[in-house]
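One thing: could you explain this record?
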Amino acid sequence: MRLAIISDIHGNLPMLEACLAEIATRQCDRIVCLGDVFGYFPDGLACAQRLRDVHADCLMGNHEAMLLGLLPLPEVKDEVYRLGAQRELVPASLLQHMQGWLPYASEVIGTKRVLMVHGSPWQPLTEYVYPNSDLSRFAALPFDAVFMGHTHHAFVRNSGDVQVCNTGSCGLPRDVGRPSFAVFDVTEGTIEVVRLSVDRTQLQQHYPNLHPSIYSVWSRGHQTDKE
């Protein structure tokens, strides 16, 4: 059993397509998205539809929560996120479907106890766990593996017997500027973070009208660029 785990697509359809194409070469049995399909880039609806095409299981991210009115959406932040404009494009049936997304999922897959969450096990929508975060509290969790998104910074580390993975971001990486996702081989118990190359010039030509801050943080790697 092999899981592809993807997160933080943020409406970037070309990067989602690139990740899905790579996933297709890796004999994965299932795709899970840890949330933030929407926000920043304008193709959130198309990304959500592509995830449904490939039968991906989707969690709710903080951007979906803002889109649905479950978290506040400050006007100044929406100048960057542009979720208000995207909300007008999403069919009512999809909005209703997204209401059923949870920000976490706890499962037994094969012999492995797995937690998948957008933010953290303690604050599923809002807490950030970075590569240099203290992971000691993960060791007490009743899981073999924990997968997270939200930070746009990918890593795999152990805390006691618990494997801790942040998949990074498919659509807006903030660490080394390369879109990423994770592959979890349940049988072998291994986790691989897969990174793709991206032609930033081509991407900017495809999306020329984004908020200027988006491309400026693409590879800057600042932990202050949150949400």
